[in-house]
Amino acid sequence: MREHFGVDKDKHASSQFADSSDERQGNRTATIYKNEQTQSSRDAELQSIVAQFWGIHEFRPLQREACEAVLNARDSLVVMPTGGGKSLCYQAPAVLLGGTTVVVSPLISLMKDQVDGLKACGINAVRLDSSRDLACRLDEAKQVLLGKVQLLFVSPERLLQDEFCELLRQIDFKALAIDEAHCVSHWGHDFRPEYRQLGRLRKLFPHVSLHAYTATATERVRLDIVKQLELKDAEILIGDFDRSNLQYSVVSRHGSLVDQVLSVIERYPKQGGIVYCISRADVDELCAKLVKAGISAKPYHAGMPAEARVKTQDAFLQERCDVVVATVAFGMGIDRSNVRYVIHAGMPKSLEHYQQEAGRAGRDGLPAECVLLHSGSDFFTWKGLIERSAREAGIDNAYVESAIAHLNEMSNYCRIGSCRHGILVRYFGQEFSKESCAACDICLGQTIAVDDGQVLAQKILSCVARLKGRYGVSYLIGVLRGDNTKNIRDRGHQAISTYGILREQSIDDLRDWIFQLIHQGALAQEQIETAAGLGVSVVSLTKNAWEVMRNERQVKLMQSLVKKKAQVRKSPGRASISEASSDADENLFDAMRKLRRTLADERKVPPYVIFSDATLKEMIQVRPKTLAQMRMVHGIGDKKLQQYGDMFLQLINEA
Ligand code: ADP
């Protein structure tokens, strides 16, 4: 999708700049560049640079257009899902343009990752951040001044400092790339006040083009980014939001949580995965249980000391730890591309959060799995947390209402029996026309609708009617199952006609269906105050309930979230290339991972900076015999070929 809009509708911004004075050199160079070269020769040059440095032989959708915007010095906003390949959109033009492209990034870990990756490809990139020692910073600043640095990474705070702006005035500052640009917007999920100040750069460097990149797609955020950064006649490029390599499923949280989590982890032995929990206490508890079960897992949440958090993050990035159990605090800095699964041990608070968190799986484009373990009570846990924090912070009702609307959307995602890829893509305002995604529990037929759901629903609703809407979920389940408890006997509820009417059903199923009825609007859950002044939550009928009972309205109950066992992905039993791979391939994969690890440790970079899993797998498939053949493998540019080619060829020959 390609749109044009901006705060300034001047369609001829770049040609105007071409006529202006020498001070506007940055922009002039780009414009002259545009004028002097034909489209096709520039395309060829771009393609050749991308192959030479990155070993990438084909652009992904919109990458070429995004690169052209930078080369033409035209402001742009590029929205691509996580893993879509946003970095190449400013990195490749930076190499082609010469001079220096400045990249703003919100986290040191993100900058480090990109700089390591660029250096490994033979591109001179540096990051100026406070974590480096002074000598190092001075040396790198010198390189910048000498015009030797193609990509310069900085935090938004540093970029806005007078001293730094002065440095930029002295160099051939070509373009400004703003990574994670949703941080600019209040409406995004990671608002950063310093990002909002970046609009000032427009005035300080009016002739440097601005390019914003984000994975957040809502229109409101997009418009806000354009406005706050004062983008002019911006080229807006919006990618396809479907992450077709991700397999989504929602599973009811039943029985032991750790067993449910383990059943997913065990399908991906020795591979990277993230488990998200709602609270810090849940993180600590679940992580301890996983470690006890022999899993290489580490915790991460904002309540831990900074040092411990960095340790967890580094261990995960360097593949010294397979699983991170975390709250949402574990997020933006996670660039490990071979995360094979993301498990949510509780429902996230919005679809936007889910897209971001689950989206950390499979950035390398290989198949990955996103499993959401859901309970109807998650909604109420979040609702309580949101209301409490709003009360404590004195935030108005509008915020609470909007947060609850997001929760409802998220709940519906868990409850509705339609394609999960479709729900996510449509949420971000795009069409989803495939009949079946073949990559979610619904389309794969892993969920089961209850045969007589309408009748079951009528039985539950009539029991609520007989209890006069005065009791909570657990009590209702007790009456439906005919529990012989003192409470029920004291109230005489063993005598009502619906007592024991669903005695053959399990507590978990009944709980699930009651919440499904709440989400379908047939039941309401509300807080009331008892005579003793205690707040309790009760289940009552809605207007729709009477229509369901009279068969004027249909409801559908899913056994939903219980998987047909045979259809769940099988465990390959080890870190695997594919379910169909041979033992020889698997052994070679192991050997390559070992070599990659050794090389990474020697260079103090994460293993995926040496080669991604996708590159290793392609090498195993193609089995190159010469360096020339190896050079055609995705992810192997000239520098990596020269540095590692022989070592990997030897492994392939020995296999
Ligand atoms: P994003 O920032 O959009 O999340 P990245 O820029 O980190 O994504 O890219 C994700 C992965 O995709 C990286 O491993 C990158 O090397 C790879 N990649 C980028 N562009 C291409 C391409 N055209 N072909 C193959 N792989 C690509």
Helix content range: 40-55%
* CATH homologous superfamily identity of the largest domain: P-loop containing nucleotide triphosphate hydrolases
Count the strands?
A: 16
Bound molecules: adenosine-5'-diphosphate
Distance between the termini: 45 Å
The average pLDDT is 85
The strands making up the biggest β-sheet line up spatially as: 1-8-2-7-6-3-5-4
Supply the CATH architecture of the largest domain.
3-Layer(aba) Sandwich
What is the CATH C level class of the largest domain, in words? Alpha Beta
Assess the beta-strand content as a share of residues: 5-15%
Kindly identify the CATH topology of the largest domain: Rossmann fold
Oligomer: single chain
Q: Whole-number radius of gyration?
A: 28 Å
Annotate the secondary structure layout.
Layout: E1 2-5, H1 13-18, H2 25-36, H3 39-54, H4 63-71, E2 76-79, H5 86-97, E3 100-104, H6 108-120, E4 125-128, H7 134-145, E5 151-154, H8 156-159, H9 162-169, E6 173-178, H10 193-196, H11 200-204, E7 209-214, H12 219-228, E8 234-238, E9 246-252, H13 257-265, E10 272-276, H14 280-292, E11 297-300, H15 306-317, E12 323-326, E13 339-344, H16 351-358, E14 368-374, H17 377-393, H18 397-415, H19 420-427, H20 453-466, H21 473-480, H22 486-490, H23 507-519, E15 523-529, E16 535-541, H24 543-549, H25 583-603, H26 607-610, H27 613-622, H28 627-630, H29 638-654
Parallel strand pairs: 2-7, 2-8, 3-5, 3-6, 4-5, 6-7, 9-14, 10-12, 10-13, 11-12, 13-14
Antiparallel strand pairs: 1-8, 15-16
This protein binds adenosine-5'-diphosphate.
